């Protein structure tokens, strides 16, 4: 990251509110985006909510893999609920202001849940690694206690540092414009408004991205490297195809989420473009949660069977 010191302008202020510009640069598409975001949000809630439900009620899905998947789907619901409702409100009312406290809260929650998702994806990759590479030890290694500890650790591990990083950013002074060129309070566009020397803040962003994104990503790559190596050694072609099918959907979500996220947070503040940041952010805040139920249900026979059983029960009751 480049050391960047912003000029100390005369109009320094502790902002009481910011303005989220969102997609105001495309005024002709406001109502289209409004409808699109509502539809995508409803789809995300319905799809991920269904996965949470069936992994809780179906006895065939009471395994570590589906325990992690249910937590991951619940996490996705929480993640999108921080950004999309606010985006829809801004598009529908054209009231783009957000208070200082609300902006800080949104950023902090986004960072905490983003860190949770990174760790949980790594846990899911480790689960597949043990299941495929050490199947005989799998019931012993991934017992209920270990699975619960891994999930709890994923949820809470990012809280202290992300709260500290958010507090550090919002303790800065902001000069001149209070317009955030984004659809939510993300670190790069908010730092862009800060005055003075932000080198320490940029280094904190870089270190946070390395700890919460790069490190889990490397663990995932290592796990899948071992999985691919093991699958290639399988004598049965059907076994290899089944193993690849089990992991391909997870890997697709991983690449989409980490790819867009790391490009965003590993660039220096001077290298950020408002339009590029918004497009990249859409991938890890909206597109990934939307694809999650599709790739896990349509490509997974056990989930599909459980969904059919649930629907059949509902029709019988009717």
Quick gist of this model?
The protein has about 325 residues and is mainly alpha-helical. Helices cover about 75% and strands about 5% of the residues. It has a 3-stranded mixed β-sheet. It has a two-stranded antiparallel ribbon with strand order 1-7. It has a two-stranded antiparallel ribbon with strand order 2-5.
Layout: helices, strands, pairs:
Blueprint lengths: L4 E2 L5 E2 L3 E4 L9 H28 L6 H30 L3 E3 H34 L4 H4 L2 H13 L2 H11 L4 E2 L3 E2 L6 H5 L4 E2 L1 H35 L3 H29 L8 H25 L2 H17 L1
Parallel strand pairs: 3-6
Antiparallel strand pairs: 1-7, 2-5, 3-4
Structure report:
- The protein is mostly helical and 318 residues long.
- The protein contains eleven helices and seven strands.
- The strands form three sheets. A three-stranded mixed sheet has the order 4-3-6. Strands 1-7 form a two-stranded antiparallel ribbon.
- It is globular and about 65 Å long.
- The termini are far apart.
